[in-house]
Amino acid sequence: MPKEAGAPTGRLQVRIKRSAEESQERFEVERFPAMTVLDVLLAVQREHDPSIGFRFSCRVAMCGTCTLRVDGRSVLACQALVQDHAREIEIAPMAGYPVVRDLVVDMAPFWEQWSRITPYLDPKESLDEPAVVRPDSEEREAIDPSLDCIQCGACYSSCGVSGQHKTFLGPAALTRAMVLINDSRDAAGRTRLDVVSGQDGADRCHLIYGCTGVCPKGLDPARAIRRVRTGRVEDR
Amino acid sequence: MTTTAAYDEVFTDVAIVGSGGAGLMAVLHAHAADPDLDITVISKGAVGRSGCTRMVQGGYNAVLSPMDSIANHFDDTLDGGKYLNNQDLAWTLVNDAPKVIHELETKVGCFFDRADDGTIKQKAFAGQSFDRTVHRGDLTGIEIMARLRDQMFRVRPRELEDVRGLDLIRAADGSVAGLTCLNIKNGKFVVVRARVVVIATGGAATMYKIAAPSREKTGDGVAMCVRAGLAVRDMEMMQFHPTGLLVGKARMTGAVLEEGLRGAGAHLLNAHGERYMTKYDPVRMERSTRDVVSRSSYMEIMAGRGTDMGGVLIDISHLGSAEVEKRFPGMVARTRQIGSDLATGPVEVSPTAHFHMGGAIIDPDCRTAVEGLLVAGEDAGGVHGANRLGGNGVAESTVFGCRAGDTAAVVARTREHPEIDIADVERAMAIAAAPLDRPEGILPFELTTRLKNVMWEHCGVVRNAEGLAAAIREIDTLEEQLALVSVPGPAAFNPAWNEALDLQNQLSVAKIIVRTAALRTETRGAHARSDFPERDDSEWLKYLVATQTVDGSIDITERPVEFSRSARPAPEEAEVEQP
Ligand SMILES: Cc1cc2nc3c(=O)[nH]c(=O)nc-3n(C[C@H](O)[C@H](O)[C@H](O)COP(=O)(O)OP(=O)(O)OC[C@H]3O[C@@H](n4cnc5c(N)ncnc54)[C@H](O)[C@@H]3O)c2cc1C
Ligand code: SF4
Ligand code: FES
């Protein structure tokens, strides 16, 4: 087996923002190779404080429920590795959401915006059979790069505009709107276009690219927002 | 102070426990059948974002091509299940799967990958006579569950998120009256009074040291059913996927490297660099079925030819790194995250507990022996027999989820809210609160680790009488220790408390798994016995049915498989299972 050069060992200092404490709490855990932030939290839970609150489910970057901030940056705890050179990390709940306990936040603000764009398909009456859509069609070329969002909330949390204007639809909902607006199976495109062109919609975006920089699935919400401004494939 | 002093009460028509493929399809169908119904979905993890349907990579089996046929899919399913399947359930699965794909595409809003001509693309998957697996890249589960989650904004059921079902509440006449729950977020109990309860919590495969599923799946639904006296079947049948990642202590251990790698020509090597499949299945080699490959790897590891971490190696780098990166981007990324690289060299893997074929006995409409109680998805038993085909799992959860929803709508209109005995409810809550109320004792984590170790070692990929007897003893000890568990407060969002509750359910289910495994003195599908290495059709075309008696002991009976839709397997088909 190739031995990982300089596989990190030794101790890691962990500072965690707890909801009950005024300041952060400090812990120390043993490092091991390929240790993620989720592993750090599980070690703290087992070795120091079994009551620490955090959330996870799939541990393979598919459920989108373990999002938190590490050294200020929104990440998936299960995907973020403890960097080789790090001696100390700081873990805090995601910004922009009410804290339920410790690292667990209430995602309601995210879902509230998500629900405003009518996030479900409104099938056209003629849609009796699965649609025939060629993979190289203009429609799929618009849509495909914006699929596989796991609704982790990181982009919303990192968006300066969402942070200031609680009514801004935000990067994830606008991305979902773009997908549906370009989906030829859907009948509600025009209503949705009205919502995204309204005062809480795409025009609020300042193209700061906070969302794109942070998306753990490599999506580019900023690009989707630009795209949504150009209207529907079907209308062209 | 006891935590049970106060509880919230919710009245609903249909309570659906679990929000994976089965749970949310049940919501959609109950609502479509009767839009006036009050529907409540109770979910231990986030709604639509917990469970394994979300984690499906490979895809969904359904007959869509005129060149394929329902009969072919049915035969493949029985063949894969080594003829232990309940044939009516398997028939229902293959018949409904195309309808559900149709519904997912035209109503729910999923969009699966297309072939060049624009029609739904279907790919090959192990154990099937036709390329019938529908998928969306290697993230099929996200497409299905995210769109089902979106549908909840249309249907608007009452969502009790971060609320775990604890135990069923029975009326005086034995029918179901609802269930007790714990609101994980605030630590308060909730009594849900329902006309119909649908159990869809997704099985119990996490009780192994190396396991693939998401965290919540600790056998809660099956344990609830068992404690309510319901019969379960095929409990000894636990599927191991052959290539789970080994990452030492990291939680990523057990996560699946997809089956397609072996299909594409990956080699499996032991620590001496030998391609050991030459010994176990010289014809099919690494492309052999899940059960055979898992068993072969396990034998190598147990014979001392495993790696230091207790695994074997998968190597596909001979295809060239560019090719591997192109065909398996997700898998390459996953291995790079842990400091190895599938594109350029071998990666350590081990069999990993994946899916529980066993579960509650249901009819094709998801009804159980208890009036008002329905079960769907991985919590039900019988669809897959002794071994599940890749691609039939998400088909099962969505097909039977739809049926449970349809049935729930009908049953809800025939039932009132039964009277319940509050003393019963309070007793259930007191038992759940015990670890928090107990002033001192032991933490649950160590006990969970012991359970996972003993299940892995003695009731895992290959079993024998002696090991199973040892497992029964250890599980009895763990049950005694569970009574000593104490967790510190607060009650709100307390993972240690939840671990104690999980452990209780895991033990209820494990107890039955080891006992049924000890009784089945043959090797069939996922159940391999080193002391009975052959499949024995003359004796064992029977399934094991277990019930828990009032005093907590387990009663097991044998029933002959009903060949209601297919002939018995011809003797030459009963090939010798390679242990
Ligand atoms: C990694 C992985 C990959 C897979 N890939 C494939 C594949 O490619 N093709 C395929 O066909 N099958 C696959 N499967 C199998 C498939 O995922 C399952 O067969 C199926 O999704 C199970 O669906 P379900 O609805 O029964 O349960 P799940 O989708 O697992 O959902 C369970 C739900 O129950 C909730 N829950 C649990 N306990 C409680 C409780 N006490 N109270 C309330 N809620 C509770 C959970 O939060 C969750 O919402 C895979 C499984 C895994 C683990
Ligand atoms: S777009 Fe990316 S960052 Fe935003 S919610 Fe989806 S997956 Fe998360
Ligand atoms: S635990 Fe599912 S995304 Fe991290």
From TrEMBL, chain B:
Top enzyme class = oxidoreductase
| The keyword Ion transport is annotated on this UniProt entry | no
Per UniProt, what is one Pfam family of this protein?
FAD_binding_2
What is this enzyme's EC? 1.3.5.4
Domain (FAD-dependent oxidoreductase 2 FAD-binding): give its ranges: 13-394
Membrane-spanning residues: none
GO molecular function, one example?
steroid dehydrogenase activity, acting on the CH-CH group of donors
Q: Which UniProt keywords apply?
A: Flavoprotein, Oxidoreductase
Q: Which residues form the active site?
A: 290
Q: Where is the Fumarate reductase/succinate dehydrogenase flavoprotein-like C-terminal domain?
A: 450-566
Q: Which InterPro entries match?
A: FAD-dep_OxRdtase_2_FAD-bd, FAD/NAD-bd_sf, Fum_R/Succ_DH_flav-like_C_sf, Fum_Rdtase/Succ_DH_flav-like_C, SdhA/FrdA/AprA, Succ_DH/fumarate_Rdtase_cat_sf
Q: What is this protein called?
A: Fumarate reductase flavoprotein subunit
Upper lineage ranks?
Bacteria, Bacillati, Actinomycetota, Actinomycetes, Propionibacteriales
